[in-house]
Amino acid sequence: MGAYILRRLLLIIPTLVGIMIINFSLVQFVPGGPIEQVLARLDGGGDSLQGISGSGDAGIEGSGGNSEYLGARGLPPEFIADLERQFGFDKPPLERFLNMMWDYARFDFGESYFRSISVTDLVLEKMPVSISLGLWSTLIAYLVSIPLGIKKAMRDGSPFDTWTSGVIIVAYAIPGFLFAILLLVLFAGGSYWKIFPLRGLTSDNFDDLTMIGKVLDYLWHITLPVVASTIASFATLTLLTKNSFLDEIKKQYVMTARAKGLSESRVLYGHVFRNAMLIVIAGFPAVFVSVFFGGSLIIETIFSLDGLGQLGFKAAVERDYPVIFGTLFFFGLMGLVVGILSDLMYVWIDPRIDFEGRG
Fold first, then answer.
1. Which of 13, 59, 235, 239 qualifies as a cystine partner to 321, CB 3.0-4.6 A?
2. pTM of the model
3. Are residues 61 and 90 in contact, defined by beta-carbon separation less than 8 angstroms?
4. Residue 129 · residue 308 · CB < 8 Å
5. Distance (Å, rounded) from C-alpha 140 to C-alpha 155?
6. How far apart are CA 156 and CA 134, in angstroms?
7. 19-33: per-residue pLDDT in tens?
8. DSSP 8-state secondary structure symbol assigned to residue 148
């Protein structure tokens, strides 16, 4: 197992480099860039130069120092050249990429072009919101889906199984953003009940509340976003749990255990549960990451939550390349590590699995 983990860890390096090369190359063909953003803001009278970082090696721009930028008419070439030096665009693309990867290898992600803050501090500032959504959504999905899936498997074909399957399919078919809007209309001051807050993760007077008051206020704000982001994974996990149990119940060792006179609960939870839960529990890291990233932008936008989804969207619109590529590197690395953790979860739950032997 040690050799397998070592191979997977070494494979992270070329995979991550490949991800960065592909995205680096694609951006070369995307119109616009940080300099165009600055020029557009200057043309509109905005104070665009505030917060521009002087170390822009992580940036990417398809135009060189002699190119004419859209909206640069009337501006002296020296001013454009100074902007290029500030953003690091006076260097060839290959040199910029190598400098960027060298900095990222040391976990130095630079500073945001348009905000006077490092990318690391910016991510850490926004991460609690996204972690709250991802963690609570994953835990609730598992706590509800596993018992429900087990009960559906034990009562397969019954009226309970039929109507719950209908509810699950309908829940899975509803888009997350549409369900989020429905929750707002029904429970957040729309046309019906004003039970939950409309936006944000905490109230304005959060700092003045007691510890219990802060916990209750946080739960009050997080309820609707978590429910909206849980709906799809809830349906998938329930059906996965049911099918896993049905597959195990039909195996010979279950019949043997019943023939020995063991009670149904002993057969179910003493023999079937561990084998049936292998694929469900081992996928916990991957499910958490999918909930953590997938759909976070839509949920955060609808409920006015300032998390990583909003951060990534704004960075893409503003062409804030240090934020875009810094977060891409960090979360790409996290996703690859989570893949290894998923394999370790399989081995921990079922020691019979031997990834080493597959080679």
1. 59
2. 0.70
3. no
4. yes
5. 23
6. 31
7. 889 988 887 767 666
8. H
